[in-house]
Amino acid sequence: SSLPQNARLEIDTTDHDFGTAVEGEVLVHTFAMKSSGEGPLVISTAKPTCGCTVSKLEVKSVEGQWGMYEFGSEIPPGTEMRLTAELDTKNKKNLASSRIN
Hints:
The chain is built from no helices and nine strands. It is mainly beta and 101 residues long. The protein has a five-stranded antiparallel beta sheet with strand order 1-3-8-5-6, with no helix packed on it. A two-stranded antiparallel ribbon has the order 2-9.
């Protein structure tokens, strides 16, 4: 079975600037996302391109409860999601600013 080509992922903002950080701090930011388009969205993996870690990807159920997303499962159109990313500044010397993409 082929996935519908009309699934889309909406993200409020694709990056976040924490500003100046103190070395050793663990910075956390949650990105708000939404499944849009006509077909269901399927996310196979979430991996960082920077020195941060993706700690969790959650989806909001019809009842309004947040739960962990099971990679590979279908996300109906209109579903809200949130991706939490952590940036550990430990061992990052001369850190002028920290941002997550």
